[in-house]
Amino acid sequence: MTEEQVKILLEELKTDLQSAESSAAITKLWHKYFSDTGSFKLLIKKIKDLPAEEKKTTALIIQQAYKEAQDLFTEKEKSIKGGELSGNIKSQSENINPIAPKIGHLHPISKTIREMNELFVSMGFSIMDGPEIETDEFCFQRLNVPADHPARDMQDTIYIKEPDFLLRTQTSSIEAQVLAKYKPPFKIVCPGKSYRNESVNKSNHFVFHQYQGVVVTEKANMKDLFGTFQVLFKKMYGEDVVTRYRNKYYPEVEPGVGPDMQCFNCHGKGCPLCKGVGWIEMGGAGIIHPNVMKMAGIDTKKYVGFAFGLGLDRWVMAKYKITDIRTLLGGNLGYKYYENESII
Amino acid sequence: MKVLYSEIKELVPGLKAAPKEVGEALTLTGFMMDGFTEVTYKGKKDYLLSLEIRQNRADCLSVIGIAQEVAAYYNLKLSIPTVKPIAKNTKKLDIKIEAKKETRRVLAIKLDDVKNIESPEWLKDYMSFYGLNSAGLLVDLSNYVMMATGYPSHLIDYDKTEGSICWSINNNFKEITTLLGSVTKLNNNEIIIRDNNNVLALAGIIGGKTDSIDINTKSIVVEIAIYDRSIIRKNSRSLSITTEASRRLEKDLDPNGADYAMKMLISLILKYTGGKVSSSLFSYYPKKYIAPKIQFDKELPSKLAGIEISPKDTLKILKGLNFKVISKNNKLTIIPPTSRMDVALPEDLAEEVIRIYGYDRIPTNETPCLEIVKNITPKNIVLAEKIRDILTSLGFDETLSWPLTQKGINDKFNYSDLKEITTQNSVNDLFPHLRQSIAAGLLNQMTEYFKKGVEYIDIFEIGKVFGEKDKNYLEHESLGILSATKNNTLPQFKDKTESLLRLIGFEDVKYFKSNLKPNISNPESCWDIFVNNQNIGIIYKLSPSETKLNIYFAEFDIEKITKMLTKIDNNPVVELTQKLIPLDVNIELDEKNSIFEYLDNLEKKINKKNIWSINIADIYQMKGKKRYTLRVTYEELSDKEAKEIHLKTFGLNNV
Predict the structure, then answer these.
(1) Residues B439-448: pLDDT tens digits?
(2) Residue B355 touches partner A, C-beta closer than 8 Å
């Protein structure tokens, strides 16, 4: 093996490396020069067979050439693989899509009910529902509203089969159901649909939503009722909410209570929204009438209860700035498809 | 009810509170002020308070009733004007009461030589405050007394009547011309006042033209009557006539108070129109109303209010409201005045005490001290909330629609064997039926969205659906899900609805061609959804529509699902260090055969002991057939054991 042959081999490698352009070509060259049968590997293997006098000089030449070859190869390999990687990075790169995703939404009424339920559940209340087709007994009689009572003037009823079967006119009917079926003590809230025989227009609907609350314990009283309302009003309308509680007549309670909230629009001065009185009526409440308790077989000497009913639709309309009640149950309610309200 | 501040002050001379303050006090005690106007009355500045009167307080549809409230609130003396007794006369009036059951009390008297002149200015002004036109002195005085006392009266021009005046149930008059000149058709069951030939009045509601007072009236019969309130309400409603009289007489009005009202009216008529009493006072009062005697615990107001109200304050308030207090042997008996027909129970008395003591004295800033009680929330409510969360996470929007539908809608959407339920009297007569499926509402919503160019229509609703079976009205909570799209397919929709079922906790979900298909569905694409071998809902593609959208709908019975969920005890987890051996098998089925039926049969046949899961891994469409690749994952077995079982189970030994 002459020095010349080594040089030729090195030149050959250089030429090959120059023309190599891909990882595959480089691998091929590795096999040609550096595998067990590769030209340089064979050179190295030959060292041991050299005569002793050549071993010192030629071995050195071979080793130097082998190192130079390896360096040349590694350099070229790096350059090719590096180039390929950057090509791959580019070709496999992905961009962020600027289109917002479609997300689902709860109906504003469900959202409001949830907010209220959360509060009441945190206060240890259960959530109940009841039938929407009701009997006269549970919608009126058991709530101390006898057949000829003037309170029935307040609510025109949609009948399924007069006089016994009707669509519930108030969620108080759920109260009557729970009083009859469960043993006190209990604390419940019942969100639900109610029906009145009204024509549908911008501000009235034959179907609307109410939120009923009932507490029957050994010590329930009006102070607790007012306190409960206050907690609810603060949650729904903020800490600065101004309220008043006045005497009001409902046949199912005695004493009766009318909770009002100072008009958020005019702050009590009087405006079209509050019909000039400065207050907005929020619903009805009171201590459950002893007749209602007795009809449910509850011992009025041991237990006392309070109940309240709130109209939900107007709360929801005010909160979501909806001006037409029909929007809540019609095809007119749209959602911003990519945005929901903060849950905190 | 409107009332002038000066009138209240006249009856409560010690009143110092300003007009608005009085209105606010009345608001808190149960009579919400919904109007406050400055007016001029009798040449002086005055204030007209407009009050909402509680339904059970007929006594407060009067100035005296309101003044009594004000006096009690401010603990002042009420000074009711004294009225002269009616002059005696022995001549009997020819009056008959045939409607004995419906008539609680009638007072009537005849006056002669009255002069029905024009009313003085103050009275005309007074009438205008109540929105009444002055109709001559006699009628104006009658209305004045109604406002003052709450008792409507009726004046009959005696010279226009023939024979006896009779209170009876109408059975022959077809119509009445009212004193306002309008003709009202009668239903033949109204309580009326008539003479031998004519109907003189719709009792308790409005007088007739025949006997009405005019400028030449000289001789009148004045009557004040109280009826069974329900018949007045019924008549007023069925004839669509509401008057100041009917508003009062359809409530519980104390029959005893009629005497005072009659005396006041007679003395005013005689004072302003001249004339004389020309008959004895006719009085029909078969069953005198006596106020109840109520045993009362002085502590009850404190117990119900949750604040301390002293027995001294309690008694002071009750006395101030003119309630009689009898204390005997340490026991308290309270007798309300007969005008307070709303008070019958100790709780009624407690309300009286608390409202006058002041609702505003009950603190509102204290955290309610409510007992800890058991949670009794039914599982279907919890489930419905979970469903809302899952569906919104899957990109669906919640909607709400009308539970009442138009004629023909249920025919399209119903797939149950229940009959349609129809309302009897809905004013929305275009929507008389209760829905049998949620689909119609969602489809309406879809149409609206489509018209408005909403791009993604993935919507759901949770609500009641209704139906009748064996004369029972049934309802259950239902979930409807609708997807309308140009590109998606039924399998994609099914994946979402099935994800819901699996996220709720169901493992075994299968689909079988529906037996009862809604007419709106594409009958070739309609399946019943089975979970644990129970039908819990339906999934279908709607028949081709004009919108050219693919519309898919699924509906689930939430109550059925809830019942099943309480029995499920799934364990969907495994430690991955445990050896799971998945082995595939290909099954070829004729296209008309159901893979779910095959799986059902397979599950009955095989020993499930070492099988962790079976699922369909792939489907390959062949000519008239489908090839399903089932992946069976075995656990707690060696490779060899698993293979042996697998080959045996699927009859692959000879392959």
Answers:
(1) 999 999 999 9
(2) yes
Q: Which two tokens stand for residue A136?
A: 């006269």
Task: Say yes or no: A65 and A190 in one domain.
Answer: no
> Would you identify the CATH topology of the domain B299-360?
Phenylalanyl-tRNA Synthetase; Chain B, domain 1 (3.30.56)
For residues A65 and A124, state if they share a domain.
no
- Chain A residues inside the 8 Å CB shell of B449: 331, 334
Instruction: Flag whether residue B196 sits within 8 Å of chain A, measured between CB atoms.
Output: no
pTM of the entire structure? 0.87
Shortest alpha-carbon distance between residue A294 and chain B (Å) = 13
For residue B403, give the nearest of A207, A231, A244 by CB distance.
Answer: A207
Considering the segment(s) B580-649 as one domain, its CATH architecture is: 2-Layer Sandwich (3.30)
Q: Is A266 inside any structural domain?
A: yes
Q: Which residues lie below 8 Å from residue B191, measured CB to CB, with a gap of 6+?
A: B99, B102, B103, B167, B168, B169, B170, B202, B203, B204, B227, B231, B232, B235
DSSP character at residue B362: S
Three-class secondary structure of residue B501 per DSSP? helix
What mean pLDDT comes out for the span A175-180?
Answer: 96
What length does chain A have? Answer: 344
**Which residues, in sequence order, are CB contacts of B593 under 8 Å at separation 6+?**
none
* pLDDT-derived band at B9, boundaries 50, 70, 90: very high
DSSP B180-232: TS-EEE--S--EEEE-SSSEEEETTTEEBSTT---TT---EEEEEEEE-HHHH
Distance CA(B615)–CA(B629), nearest Å, equals 9
> Which of the given ranges, B311-325, B422-436, B449-463, B572-586, has the highest pLDDT on average?
B311-325
Give the CATH number of the domain where residue A285 resides: 3.30.930.10
Segment A13-52, tens digit of pLDDT: 999 999 988 889 999 999 999 999 998 888 888 888 888 8
Tally Cβ neighbours within 10 Å of residue B628.
17
A240: alpha, beta or left? (left if phi > 0; alpha if psi -120 to 50): alpha
> Which of A114, A254, A336 best tests the B interface by mutation, with the highest count of B CBs <10 A?
A254
Domain of A47 in residue numbering reads as: 3-92
Interval B466-490: pLDDT, tens: 999 999 999 999 999 999 988 889 9
d(CA B212, CA A51): 154
- Predicted ipTM? 0.89
Q: Distance (Å) from the C-alpha of residue B382 to the closest C-alpha of chain A?
A: 9
- Contact B304/A255, CB-based, under 8 Å? yes
Q: Contacts of residue B57 in chain A, CB cutoff 8 Å?
A: 249
